[in-house]
């Protein structure tokens, strides 16, 4: 029996174990769930060591040390000491007396990400989208485009009004907010449909695995 | 209307609304499973967004370099793997050079699985494609969007070696590939974060690369605004997007085959939604009229 | 107080006008040199007419390792027996020196960017501040003719990318709004936030759990600690934890990320301290489960079915697991309050949970509950930013309808 065949059977057993939850909670589901949780935790530990810790920290520091000893110059890879230091500070959480030092690492992570993402989101998701929403409300010779443009502009405008928190939704403002809610709900319905399609696709994939790869029925 | 009839009608709608969900699961299981046994091909209508992806690849002259980022794991295989295989088929048939990378750890492994499938095709096998000359797998590197940003300056800083430990300077395909200036198209297969949005924000809007994407159906609608503004050349959405891509290529594969199952399951879900809404509104009307009678 | 708010308005208006002026000052880079008429070199009867007016200038908005070359198309481009198929761009360090081929452009195109590497060690290194001379060849069926040599041009880097001016304006505008309102909030002025349905249900949901003697399950989502949705969730967690401390209701917080777990522990500990019940804080109730998405869901579902919490909070960044969580919670009979900025998951929360904070309402909820000046100020700043966008949309739509290109150009981000 080849290892691939054993893998297929294990995969089928675990698939059916998780599916059994649809009937009710049972030991097979509990076993499959516990195994999945445990294996995934172990997998991420291994990935973290071999893909993060080793190549991003150790290899870079070794390179910097090699350059220092062989060429006598200070290489920029020493900057990874800073990252390593912040990582050690995070680990100090395990010691209550010095655990507060981990806040420095957290502050660094939060601050760096905010700075990195601020202009990116503003340009790609803000200004470019405003640019794309500035559309002519009347397009001569094309009723489809005219209606489409009006829907986009009105929908965006009213959606923004719904998310305006400084004014209560009353009167004309409330009316526009209500239109915004309708646009949102129609959008959510479309998203819901798309996501249901995604779920069905995953189920189809699993069924195909069981019928074709495991049982070889077709 | 007499009391007995009211009692019967009430219990019928209430029964429908409180039906054991396991019965619904059974209906869905049958709706998904049974069509798989029938090799029925449905007509696949191709959307302009999918056409955009196809044309973005098709318009490249032979020898162009395409960077493919595999940003998904086995959990999204049914939706994205058919797209990956279709892309490789199109790329190799058009004699494009393919550089594979991943921002998810399992991504490059998914690429190898797709390559294994595609190399079984006779016409592609006949091309005798060589690793390092026609395609290369740079593997996974940690850093998410920072990797995308870094590659805009230097590929070597993010990927000093390929997935097998070979320094990229020694790989023929990577000679002369310094950064995105030497790449003609980026194709991203994405199931979440990091993914297409990060490629748009850090790749397209900073280094003005040309980008096409394949996404799971969950996040495909979020990418349409990027297509509208031209930040994305096109996007393939879910398994349907994969089926459209296969149709455009003229090579119907798994995605097209699964569409019958998809269609039947959707029809069953629509039926349940209609029944559920009829039951809900009927009950609501009954309760309202009862309250009016009591009032 | 009225004087202060007048001053604030004036500051904001002044900044807005300044930024508008800055936006309007975006100009077009000047070409460095002019060019003269061309003379064909190949006098063969088959050679196409040469391109003319070759201009070379520093490529604008770059790091100084590129020169752009433009020319007037050959008269034989797209017509006649001598149809041009391509253009070749050649470069030399002196007008009489040897010219090397730098690249090609197809017929019909009259622009080429001569780019190189910035590293000196690279074979294609492009030195800045060095004069280069260009000429362009029109090629057709093996024959060609060349333009005269252009005037010299050198590449240099620009400190500021003029094409990104709309981004600069937006950043400064938004930052100004936020800073002004944070200042106002810190001075004690009450900033109005409209009531949100989901927030009002929080106290009711905690009370229900206390009455039933069952725990509260709080899910922070699958985001990392630096994500905005997770940060907003931490703030709401602080408020919820304070209530659970007062009512002595157990709160369970299974985490997907170790750093998130660390911050959650800090938040809950601080909340219990504030409520005067530090001894009731149980660190083991806030634990790390796994970082793998569906393994995490499987674990949380197990907790829901075994512990049967009375109330579930799903606040943060959620992906495909959202409906799995909400559905299982519904099965367990819990009251559920959700909130996420992940658009694709909101429909599932709307369908399967009792109250949903849609998108930005999650951030507003954290400001509303936390009442911290920074949160309130940034929320107000966001609102003013939205108002600016709405005005821009309306004006822009009108400008586009009546073809006022000038206004449309204000929003165009050039790469």
Features:
heterotrimer; B: 295 residues; alpha/beta; Rossmann fold; 2 domains; six-stranded parallel sheet; 6 strands; 54% helix; elongated; disordered N terminus; C: 415 residues; Immunoglobulin-like; 3 domains; 13 strands
What can you see in these coordinates?
The complex is a heterotrimer of chains A (about 220), B (about 300) and C (about 425). Chain A has six helices and no strands. By secondary structure, chain A is mostly helical. In chain A, helix 3 crosses helix 4. The model of chain A has no long low-confidence stretch (mean pLDDT about 90). Chain B is an alpha/beta fold and about 300 residues long. Helix content of chain B is about 55%, strand content about 10%. Chain B has twelve helices and six strands. In chain B, strand 5, helix 10 and strand 6 form a beta-alpha-beta unit. In chain B, helix 3 crosses helix 11 and helix 4 runs parallel beside helix 11. The longest helix of chain B is centred in the last third of the chain and has 41 residues. Chain B is elongated and about 85 Å long. The two termini of chain B are about 20 Å apart. Chain C has about 425 residues and is an alpha/beta fold. Chain C has three domains: about 100 residues, Sandwich (Immunoglobulin-like); about 55 residues, no CATH class; about 180 residues, Rossmann fold (3-Layer(aba) Sandwich). In chain C, strand 12, helix 8 and strand 13 form a beta-alpha-beta unit. In chain C, helix 2 runs antiparallel to helix 10. Chains in contact: A-B, A-C, B-C. Chains A and C meet through helix 2, helix 4, helix 5 and helix 6 of A and helix 2, helix 5, helix 6, helix 8 and helix 9 of C.
Q: Which class do the helix and strand fractions of chain A yield?
A: mainly alpha
Shape by Cα distribution of chain C? elongated
* Number of contiguous helices of chain C: 11
CATH topology of the largest domain in chain C: Rossmann fold
* Spatial strand order of the main sheet of chain C: 10-9-8-11-12-13
Query: What is the share of helical residues of chain C?
Result: 40-55%
Chain pair sharing the greatest interface: A-C, 60 and 67 residues
How far apart the termini of chain A lie comes to: 21 Å
Count the beta strands of chain A. Answer: 0
Q: At CATH's second level, what is the architecture of the largest domain in chain C?
A: 3-Layer(aba) Sandwich
Overall body shape of chain A: extended
Helix content of chain A: over 70%
- Structural class of chain C, please? alpha/beta
Structural domain count of chain C: 3
């Amino acid at each position: 029996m080849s290892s691939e065949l054993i893998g297929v059977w294990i995969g089928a057993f675990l698939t059916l174990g998780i599916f059994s939850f649809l009937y009710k909670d049972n030991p097979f589901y509990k076993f499959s769930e516990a195994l999945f949780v445990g294996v995934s935790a172990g997998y991420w530990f291994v990935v973290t060591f071999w893909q993060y810790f080793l190549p991003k920290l150790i290899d870079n520091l070794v390179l910097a040390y090699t350059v220092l000893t062989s060429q006598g110059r200070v290489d920029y890879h020493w900057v990874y000491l800073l990252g390593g230091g912040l990582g050690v500070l995070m680990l100090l959480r395990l010691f209550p007396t010095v655990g507060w030092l981990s806040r420095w690492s957290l502050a660094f992570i939060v601050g760096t990400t905010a700075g990195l993402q601020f202009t990116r989101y503003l340009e790609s998701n803000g200004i470019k989208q405003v640019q794309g929403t500035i559309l002519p409300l009347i397009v001569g010779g094309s009723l489809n485009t005219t209606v489409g443009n009006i829907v986009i502009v009105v929908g965006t405008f009213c959606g923004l009004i719904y998310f305006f928190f400084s004014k209560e939704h009353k009167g004309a403002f409330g009316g526009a907010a209500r239109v915004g809610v309708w646009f949102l709900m129609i959008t959510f319905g479309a998203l819901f449909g798309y996501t249901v399609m995604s779920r069905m696709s995953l189920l189809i994939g699993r069924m195909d695995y069981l019928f074709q790869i495991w049982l070889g029925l077709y | 209307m007499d009391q007995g009839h009211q009692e019967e009608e009430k219990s019928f709608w209430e029964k429908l609304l409180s039906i054991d969900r396991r019965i619904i699961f059974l209906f869905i299981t049958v709706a998904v499973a049974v069509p798989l046994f029938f090799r029925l091909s449905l007509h696949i209508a191709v959307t302009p967004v999918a056409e955009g992806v196809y044309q973005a690849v098709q318009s490249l002259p032979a020898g162009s370099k395409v960077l493919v980022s595999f940003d998904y794991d086995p959990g999204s295989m049914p939706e994205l793997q058919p797209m990956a295989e279709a892309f490789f088929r199109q790329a190799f048939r058009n004699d494009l050079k393919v550089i594979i990378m991943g921002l998810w750890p399992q991504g490059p492994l998914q690429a190898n699985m797709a390559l294994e499938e595609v190399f079984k095709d006779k016409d592609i096998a006949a091309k005798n494609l060589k690793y390092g000359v026609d395609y290369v797998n740079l593997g996974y590197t940690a850093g998410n969007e920072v990797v995308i940003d870094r590659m805009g300056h230097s590929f070597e800083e993010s990927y000093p070696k390929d997935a097998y430990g070979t320094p990229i300077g020694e790989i023929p395909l990577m000679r002369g590939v310094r950064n995105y200036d030497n790449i003609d198209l980026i194709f991203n297969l994405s199931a979440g974060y990091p993914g297409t949005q990060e490629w748009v924000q850090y790749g397209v809007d900073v280094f003005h690369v040309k980008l096409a994407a394949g996404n799971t159906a969950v996040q495909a609608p979020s990418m349409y605004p990027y297509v509208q503004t031209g930040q994305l050349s096109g996007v393939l959405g879910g398994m349907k997007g994969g089926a459209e891509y296969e149709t455009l290529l003229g090579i119907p594969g798994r995605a097209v085959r699964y569409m019958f199952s998809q269609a039947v399951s959707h029809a069953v879900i629509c039926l349940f939604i209609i029944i559920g809404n009829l039951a809900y509104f009927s009950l609501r009307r009954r309760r309202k009229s009862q309250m009016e009678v009591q009032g | 107080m009225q004087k202060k708010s007048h001053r604030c308005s004036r500051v904001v208006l002044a900044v807005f006008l300044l930024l508008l002026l800055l936006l309007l000052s975006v100009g077009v880079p000047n070409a460095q040199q002019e060019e003269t008429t061309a003379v064909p070199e190949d006098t063969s009867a088959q050679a196409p007419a040469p391109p003319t007016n070759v201009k070379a200038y520093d490529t604008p908005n770059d790091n100084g390792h590129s020169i752009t070359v433009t020319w007037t198309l050959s008269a034989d481009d797209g017509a006649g027996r001598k149809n041009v198929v391509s253009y070749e761009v050649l470069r030399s360090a002196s007008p009489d020196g040897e010219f090397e081929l730098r690249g090609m452009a197809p017929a019909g195109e009259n622009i080429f960017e001569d780019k190189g590497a910035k590293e000196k060690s690279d074979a294609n290194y492009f030195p800045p501040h060095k004069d280069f001379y260009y000429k362009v060849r029109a090629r057709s069926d093996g024959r060609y003719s060349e333009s005269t040599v252009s005037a010299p041009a050198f590449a240099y880097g620009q400190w500021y990318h003029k094409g990104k001016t709309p981004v600069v304006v937006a950043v400064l505008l938004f930052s100004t709004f936020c800073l002004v309102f944070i200042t106002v909030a810190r001075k004690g002025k009450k900033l109005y936030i409209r009531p949100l349905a989901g927030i009002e249900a929080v106290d009711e949901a905690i009370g229900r759990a206390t009455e039933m003697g069952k725990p509260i399950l709080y899910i922070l989502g699958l985001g990392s600690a630096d994500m905005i949705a997770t940060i907003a969730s931490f703030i709401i967690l602080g408020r919820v934890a304070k209530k659970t401390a007062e009512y002595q209701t157990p709160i369970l917080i299974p985490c997907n990320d170790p750093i998130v777990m660390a911050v959650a522990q800090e938040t809950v500990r601080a909340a219990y301290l504030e409520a005067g019940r530090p001894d009731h804080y149980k660190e083991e109730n806030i634990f790390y489960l796994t970082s793998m998405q569906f393994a995490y869901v499987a674990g949380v579902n197990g907790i829901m079915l075994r512990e049967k919490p009375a109330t579930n909070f799903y606040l943060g960044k959620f992906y495909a697991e959202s409906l799995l969580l909400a559905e299982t919670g519904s099965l367990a009979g819990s009251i559920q309050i959700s909130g996420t900025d992940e658009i694709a998951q909101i429909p599932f929360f709307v369908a399967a949970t009792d109250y949903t904070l849609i998108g930005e309402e999650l951030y507003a909820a954290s400001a509303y509950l936390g009442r911290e000046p920074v949160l309130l100020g940034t929320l107000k700043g966001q609102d003013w930013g939205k108002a600016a966008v709405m005005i821009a949309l309306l004006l822009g739509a009108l400008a586009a309808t009546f073809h006022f290109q000038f206004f449309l150009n204000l929003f165009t981000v050039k790469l």
